[in-house]
Amino acid sequence: MRSVRLLLLFAGIALAVGATAQAQDWSTIKGQVVFKNGPKPEAITPTNDKAHCESKGPLLSTLYSVNEKNGGFRNVVVWLRIDDNAKEKRKAPFPTDKIKPELAKAVPVVRVIDQPCCQFEPRLIAARAGDKLVVKNSSPVGHNIKMDGVGPLEFNVNLPAGGKHEINGGLIAEFSPISFSCNVHPWMNGRLRIFDHPYFAVTDNDGKYEIKDAPVGKWSLVVWHQEGFHMGIPGAYGTTIEVKGAVTEVPPVAFEFVVVKP
Length: 262
Known about the structure:
- By secondary structure, this protein is mainly β.
- About 10% of the residues lie in helices and about 35% in strands.
- It is built from 3 helices and 17 strands.
- β6 (about 145-150) and β7 (about 155-160) form a beta hairpin.
- The longest helix has 22 residues, at about 1-25.
- It is globular and about 55 Å long.
- The protein starts with a helix and ends in an 8-residue tail after the last strand.
- The relative contact order is 0.23.
- Mean pLDDT is about 90; it is low at about 5-20.
């Protein structure tokens, strides 16, 4: 009986150690992107549908959305890539063996772009290959959406009040961002990024982000805004971070645009 108890005890210890080791293979990355002294939202003078566009107050650009209290920079995309700055590796796909098995075949998410009051909501979409895309118009006035992608993501459609346009099939990963705009209201525009992995996030109203079940080890963290990468072109390769433990706290990123002089 004693030997049986010892065997059960050792088996329990082995299972616990195995579970701990497995849990430590993946980490939740948490961080924040700030833009101190960022530009104030610019006023927009509607050229069409003025009464509707200003029905909730003055119309302001949402290109630079900075929290006045903490400097949090909203609508910034953050993602992981291999920690290799070789030029030929910039477009390298994410290693599939580093994706958590439960996430390898994720259930497609329906991504929605709306046009409720003369602005795209959200103006920045981050999606994974296989996700679905729906564009709708919940406003009482007509809109349009022109998307400059390839295949099913290259279209120019008019959307009447309450209208909707669904993209056939799942999204395909694209290295570059895809722009979209409204021909009726020319100040309206946004971007869509499609990844071949699940390790990306969009910053919230406080500039905070969270990437769950990220693989441990050294990775590059890329920080991108519609107007460009943090630290300019070199920022496309990201900054090396060490992902480890149950939670990986990344120091706040003070976003900086770098203008390349001709």
